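Hi Y.,

Following your request, here is the sequence exactly as I used it, all 102 residues.
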Amino acid sequence: MDYNGVKAITHASAFFAPFLVPLIVWLLMQDRGAKNMALQALLFHVIMGVLIGISWALSFIVIGIPFLIVFGLMGIYYPIKGILYALQGRPFHYPIIGAFVR
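Below is the corresponding structure, written out as tokens. Let me know if you'd prefer a different format.
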């Protein structure tokens, strides 16, 4: 069975429920590919949240502003890329996290 829709929703959850949806998919799905993608998405959302939080805190001393911009753009770009890849049925791995979760 093809779970491209579930994978796309997992990626799209970055915009409405970044921790809840990947966690639910990871816990409830039986398909290994969908579970793998949900775990990658969950770790990506957690790490990006931490990085954006640190960058926000450092923005008060100006050094965090460029990091805040870069991490914010990454948090938008990669979920959209994942959605498009999932809808096309192509494999997608988040940068760095995809190498650790296989």
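Helices lie at 4-12, 20-28, 32-58, 64-88, 97-100.

Thanks again,
Q.
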